[in-house]
Amino acid sequence: MVLVYDCDGSPEDSEEYVAKRDAVLDYVSMLRERGVFRGADPLRGPHAATTVKVQDGETLVRDGPFAETREWFAGYFLLECHDLDEALEYAAACPMAADAGVEVRPVRLVPQWYDPVDRLREVLSE
Questions:
Q1: DSSP letter string over 11-55?
Q2: Whole-structure pTM value
Q3: Cα–Cα distance list, 13 to 10, 20, 45, 79, 85 (Å)
Q4: Parallel, antiparallel, or unpaired for β 72-79 and 58-63?
Q5: 23, 34, 95, 108: least buried by Cβ within 10 Å?
Q6: Which domains, from first to last, does the chain contain?
Q7: What residues form DSSP beta bridges with 54?
Q8: Which residues are within 8 A (CB) of 100 and not within 5 positions of it... i.e. 6 or more apart?
Q9: d(CA 104, CA 83)
Q10: Closest to 40 measured CA to CA, from 90, 85, 4
Q11: Which range, of 11-15, 16-20, 93-97, 119-123, averages the lowest pLDDT?
Q12: What are the residues whose beta carbons fall under 8 Å from the beta carbon of 106, sequence distance 6 or more?
């Protein structure tokens, strides 16, 4: 999984935002052409976040992310790669790698749950 971080708060109608969006669309096209794209979702910014914490049996809800930070988790790309080197190659090609950076992390398979790639294939075929 390529985890995307962002620190750019450009308005959606700005030239910077449109250029970044177009670069991401080109990136997704490339991933699809190479057959590694399995899914992706952007997330709304920290202003739309709600944090839930259960402390001593009481549910505490507050607006915003866990901590004040300039960088925030902005979304992900789920890729099916042969090894870490291939995943790093695709991560380096991600347009957001030049901004706040991207993180590559293997998906942890839990047999008692389900195989996330198989589940994603099932959802995408519906």
A1: -TTSHHHHHHHHHHHHHHHHHHHHT-EEEEEE---GGG-EEEEEE
A2: 0.74
A3: 8, 11, 16, 29, 36
A4: unpaired
A5: 108
A6: 2-125 (3.30.70.1060)
A7: 59
A8: 5, 6, 7, 8, 71, 74
A9: 11
A10: 4
A11: 119-123
A12: 1, 84
